Each structure stands twice: as structure tokens, then as C-alpha cells.
């Protein structure tokens, strides 16, 4: 992994310039646009009990965007192997569950593609159990499913995963609480300011209405952007249902 | 489609998916140091399921999960040398169960003279600046503790 801005100079080269000649974006014109109000959940979201002792009491301090925030790691030269994006072929046999294709585009908020950016996903198996030592849900593990994948977007910002549809699972947030089926997504984008960690949900899930994590997003239209849509054109006959999930990162003012 | 995709929490089960790598390129030139510390919540309890991501323009990117005691550690090089504009620092982003939108902060180093004129530190009320200063605990090691909530709360930024 190397700094995007360091690619030509080589690691460590020009260190003095890296910080010493830092440019501070004084106007919105040359910085990354903020998200509209209501897009991101407040960390003080009492319905999600784990936020109680983990949300800062002070509001964040607004700072100008400097080169430190406007740069980030590049994975353009990374190679993950041919099966990193196919969670159904990472073991000796096929995992139990409904095979699905998840695909989409990563764009900035002006609709420009975000190429060659790292997309990482993780999820529960079809029974609603993570292959993780901290998951104690009484549901079976699947020896053929680890539930983790990664890929790079192509030049047009497109990505694709093959996986199985995750199951819902109970959690201790409140009485009879169940997480809607979801796939965790992590995207780096071009710099620290475009970093995104989110969750993809499935259309028509009745558990969404009662989920405090999904509903922590104030704006209803923003919540809709967390729900994949069924995509017949990506559905592979006799093999797997297709879902489309586009992601939008902060964009830089042109 | 319009507007950015909202944040959601990273949850407690990310460890197998998000590869953790050392920060400094093995070829990066500079004084090699480690930065270690812990993450604690508003009751002083360790946060054992956080992920810390460090970015350093002259060295690279690192991810460090906390362990059950809330502790993390990375190896890197001391940032800089830096001119008059900004003191040496690391960008730090923090993710965890119970954190819905990632927290952004910076790690500065207590023994760097440029801290006094750093334009970002100067935006922080003086009585809270120490929360951003890693303390030197050995010739090649610094300690930086993150407090998510309370009287000693770490300063977080929005950029």
C-alpha cells in the first residue's frame, strides 16, 4: 500500500514537502463537499444502546481540509487472487444458502466514477451466524463460508461480489431485537475524507422498520440508499439472484 | 441516486475482513517509532472491539484493532521533517460497535516544537489540546490514549 501522492516519488521521498508545503483548502471550491444534513447518523443515537458510553459529548471541531485529509492509501496495484470477490468458492464445498450476486458502481456525489478503490465486505452466513469468535448466536456455522470478500472497482467504478444471502439474527439491544439481513461494506475512496463504512440491506425486509442502526439515519431518502434493489438483469439464470447496490462517496469540488 | 451513502456502524465482527498491515513502508526513511495506547468509553471501560486507521502522508496507512483490554499498537516513522505549516502528526479514524459515523482525530507528538504554531492545534481550546499529544514513553515509543466520552474526552474533528 502506498500513498497515492507518493506513487511517483516513491515511499518516503519528499517527506519534507509532504507536510511542510501543506496546502490548506480555504474555500469549499477546492475541498470535498460535506454531506447534506441528515445523511449520516448521529453518534448520539439512544435507541442503539451501544452508543450510550461511546459517543463524544463535545461536538467535533471544524478544521480546514489539509493535504493530510485530502490524501490516502492507494490499492490500485493490489492483487487479491481470483476468488477474493466470490465468497461461495473460498472453501472445499459450496456454502448453504441462497446464492446471490451483488454488484454496483462507486461514484462521487457528482456522479463521477471512483476507480480502483478497495471495497471490502463481511457478513453472517445464511443461518445468521458470523464466522467470528465473538458471535455466540445459537445458529450453525458453515464450514464452507467465512463471509469476507474484497475487490477493487474497475475504471468505471464498478464492482461485483458473489455470495449467499445472509440471515437475520437476534441481538441484545432491546427485547426481541433482530438485525435485518445485511452485508457490511468498507470503502476507502481517494482519501481520508471519502472513507465510508456502511451496511447494505435487502428490499422489503420487515425488520428494517424496527432496526435502530438503520433508522439512526435521519433522512428517509438517505436510508433508502442503504437498500439494494433486486436486479433481474444481474440475475443469472438457473444460478443466482442479482442485487444492485450503488455507493456514493464525498466528491471534490471541480 | 443523489447524495452520499450514509455511514453505519462497523459492528463487532469485522476482524476477518479488514486486513491489518503495518504503517511505515519498510523502505520509508526516518526515525522508527511505535505508537501504542488504549481506547476507553465514558465509564472508563476498555473498548475491545474498535478499529483504528492511521494515515501518514510520508509513510502510509495502517489498521490496528484493539484487543480485549482496549489496547492497540502500530509501528511507523516519526512524521516529518515538517516545515512551518503543520507539526508532525498522524490522521486517525476510529470505528467501533456503538460508533455509527466514524470519528476523525489526529495524533501529535508532545516533544515537537512545531506544535506551538500548528494551525489545526490552534483551533482546539487550550485545555483540550493535551488529548491530541502522544506522550513519549521510551526513546522509540509514544503513548496515545483515546477517550470516547467524558471529562478527558479526546478531541474529534470534522473536515
Overview of this protein structure:
The complex is a heterodimer of chains A (254) and B (159). Chain A has 2 helices and 14 strands, in the order E-H-E-E-E-E-E-E-E-E-E-E-H-E-E-E. With 254 residues, chain A is mostly beta strands. Chain A has one domain: Protocatechuate 3,4-Dioxygenase, subunit A (Sandwich), CATH 2.60.130. In chain A, strands 4, 7, 12, 13 and 14 form a 5-stranded mixed sheet that branches. In chain A, strands 6-5-10-11 form a 4-stranded antiparallel sheet, with no helix packed on it. Chain A has a two-stranded antiparallel ribbon with strand order 1-3. In chain A, strand 10 and strand 11 form a beta hairpin. Chain A is globular, with a radius of gyration of 20 Å. Chain B has 159 residues and is mainly β. Chain B has no helices and 10 strands. Chain B has strands at 32-40, 50-56, 60-65, 71-77, 89-96, 103-109, 133-138, 141-143, 146-147, 157-158. Chain B starts with 31 loop residues before the first strand and ends with a strand. At the A-B interface, strand 1, helix 1, strand 2, strand 5 and strand 6 of A face strand 5, strand 6 and strand 10 of B. Strand 2 (61-62) of chain A pairs parallel with strand 10 (157-158) of chain B, so a sheet runs across the interface.
- Mean pLDDT over the residues of chain A: 89
Quaternary structure state of the chains depicted: heterodimer
CATH topology of chain A, by name, is Protocatechuate 3,4-Dioxygenase, subunit A
Taking the sheet with the most strands of chain B, its summary is:
9 strands, mixed
Major β-sheet of chain A, in short? 5 strands, mixed
Number of domains of chain B: 1
Q: Which two chains have the most extensive interface, and how many residues on each?
A: A-B, 88 and 77 residues
- CATH class of chain B equals Mainly Beta
Number of strands of chain A: 14
CATH topology name of chain B, in short, is Protocatechuate 3,4-Dioxygenase, subunit A
* Principal-axis shape of chain A: globular
Q: How many domains of chain A?
A: 1
Which structural class matches the secondary elements of chain A?
Answer: mainly beta
